[in-house]
Amino acid sequence: MLATCDTPNFPLLWDTSLLAQYRWLYHDTTTFISYGGVEITSVIDTVNELLGRSGRSVKGKEGVGFVLRSLPENARNLYRVLIAEILAAADDDGDDDDKGDGEDGDGAGGGSRRGGGKSGELGGVEFQALYQKAVEEFICSSEMGFRQLLKEFFDHDMLVSRREGGAEVLRVPWRREECMAILEDLMG
Question: What pTM, to 2 d.p., does this model score?
Answer without folding.
Answer: 0.61
